Amino acid sequence: MAGMRMDGVVVTDYARTAEEAADDLNAAAAIVGGEGVSGESYGPLGAQIGLGESYGRAAGALRRQLVDGADALKSAAEALRHVTVRHSGQDAEAAELIKRAGEIG
């Protein structure tokens, strides 16, 4: 694309930031849970209306969302790294062509 510039260092930093955020989401997913929560945790009324089960389902949904978000961030980081590698390879090829053209002329 004409006129477009890419700073490989900046893109690599974005990839690193995305990976760190993915790690944070995975850590949060690991601690979200309904373990140890039962119907009795909310007293007789909570047990009767199913608060423990509701909490468990909500925790499971949140855990899945956190893991999905982490997966998306890791995928984005990988794609950013591919772009950086591809772009830097094109820069190296262009530099070599310019160097050869200078030697010929």
What does this entry look like structurally?
This protein is mainly alpha-helical and about 100 residues long. Helix content is about 80%, strand content about 0%. It contains three helices and no strands. The protein has helices spanning about 10-30, 45-50, 50-105. Helix 1 packs antiparallel against helix 3 (about 50-105). The longest helix is centred in the last third of the chain and has 54 residues, at about 50-105. It is rod-shaped. It starts with 7 loop residues before the first helix and ends with a helix. The model has no long low-confidence stretch (mean pLDDT about 85).
- Low-confidence segments, given as residue ranges, are none
Q: What gap, in angstroms, lies between the N and C termini?
A: 28 Å
Number of helices: 3
Strand content: under 5%
Helix coverage percent? over 70%
Question: What attributes characterize this protein structure?
Answer:
single chain; 105 residues; mainly alpha; 3 helices; rod-shaped
